[in-house]
Design brief:
The protein has 342 residues and is an alpha/beta fold. The chain folds into 2 domains: 4-208, 3-Layer(aba) Sandwich (Rossmann fold), CATH 3.40.50.880; 225-341, Homeodomain-like (Arc Repressor Mutant, subunit A, Orthogonal Bundle). It is 46% helix and 13% strand. The strands form 3 sheets. It has a 7-stranded mixed β-sheet with strand order 5-2-1-6-7-11-10, sandwiched between helices. A two-stranded antiparallel sheet has the order 3-4. A two-stranded parallel sheet has the order 8-9. Helix 1 (32-49) crosses helix 7 and helix 5 (153-159) crosses helix 12.
């Protein structure tokens, strides 16, 4: 690592009177990447400016028997020692809530009350990865735009219709911020660094991270359909996009085929050639995947899950679900609940 005299220092026009402090709130089973990527961006910003522009502390609910801060384990099994236990914050702090697996289970009444209290004091609050769920549960995203990891979007949409959910990598709406998870933390923090101290510093941080494709809030989080399925066929991509957008009311293969200017038989051959399954089978798998997400992420009844995924009756839904996942929707939900209670 080069000393300051041997590396390019980014000149900051106006040095802050004191470093901007980020308070990282670690929830059980949080995603380590979303946390570590954010901290690294701040560390490198300090290094490139050769002055303490930022500082950070770690907090959460974990508490030892004697009241001292405890440790929180991330989804990768690594434990982090907390600096404090959900304290009253300074008015110029910025909260970064980090979550990951089973965010519903990790969203406790104590956490919700703490977030609401700090929000009433006007403190900016962000939800990294799946923590957007916790912010929405606290009512902090009502009437705002937000994003969340694509795997959690189905359940989020069903539960929080007062939030304008997007597919963006990150969203900044006033003093609320949300990210889609993973490396999206880098994109958000590069934006914050640029807002605070200019594009030159943000670009220097990106270079140090070997991060050559900086994304904005206009970029979507998922790969394109051709990239995801490994096939670059424009008509096949169009049909799959229509399927993904019409889960609750499925479109017949004949209409899908007509919409892209081919016959039903041609569409069948296209799916068989590239995906080794019929259009009907592929569509069914999309619907069942959404159903599984809803069973895991919401408390919707099995009947309502069936209807939300285009099944006319619970019995037909259960039959299709069992054929694909080798268990029933009821047993799937029960097994999931048992795992969370361990």
């Amino acid at each position: 690592m080069l000393p300051p005299t041997q590396r390019q220092i980014v000149e900051i026009d106006t040095a802050p009177a004191k470093p901007r402090r980020f308070v990282f709130v670690l929830m059980p089973d949080f995603t380590m990447l979303c946390f570590s990527a954010a901290v690294e961006a701040l560390r490198i910003a300090n290094r490139m400016a050769n002055k303490p522009l930022y500082e950070w502390v770690i907090t959460g609910e974990a508490e030892m028997d004697d009241g001292r801060p405890g440790v929180v384990r991330c989804s990768a099994g690594v434990s982090f020692a907390l600096d404090m236990v959900l304290p009253e914050l300074n008015r110029d702090d910025t909260v970064m809530l980090c979550s990951g697996l089973d965010v519903q289970q990790a969203t406790t009444k104590r956490m919700l009350n703490w977030l609401r209290r700090e929000a009433r004091r006007g403190i900016p609050i962000a939800g990294l990865c799946t923590a957007g769920y916790t912010l929405a549960k606290a009512g902090l995203l009502d009437g705002r735009k937000a994003t969340i990891h694509w795997e959690n979007q189905d359940g989020f949409t069903e539960e929080f219709d007062e939030v304008e959910l997007t597919k963006s990598v990150f969203v900044i709406d006033g003093n609320r911020m949300t990210t889609a998870g993973g490396t999206a933390s880098i994109d958000l923090f590069l934006k914050l660094i640029a807002n605070d101290h200019g594009e030159e510093l943000a670009s220097s941080v990106a270079d140090q991270l070997i991060y050559s494709a900086i994304r904005t809030d206009q970029d979507t989080q998922r790969l394109s359909v051709p990239t995801r399925i490994g096939v670059r066929h424009p008509k096949l991509s169009q049909v799959i996009q229509k399927m993904e957008a019409n889960i609750e009311e499925p479109i017949s293969p004949s209409i899908l085929a007509a919409d892209v200017g081919m016959s039903t038989r041609q569409l069948e051959r296209l799916f068989r050639r590239y995906l080794n399954r019929s259009p009907k089978r592929y569509y069914m798998e999309l619907r069942l995947q959404k159903a599984r997400n809803l069973l895991m992420q919401t408390d919707m009844s099995v009947i309502n899950v069936a209807l939300a995924c285009g099944f006319a009756s619970p019995s037909h839904f259960s039959k299709c679900y069992r054929a694909h996942y080798e268990t029933t929707p009821y047993r799937e939900r029960g097994a999931h609940a048992s795992r969370l209670s361990v």
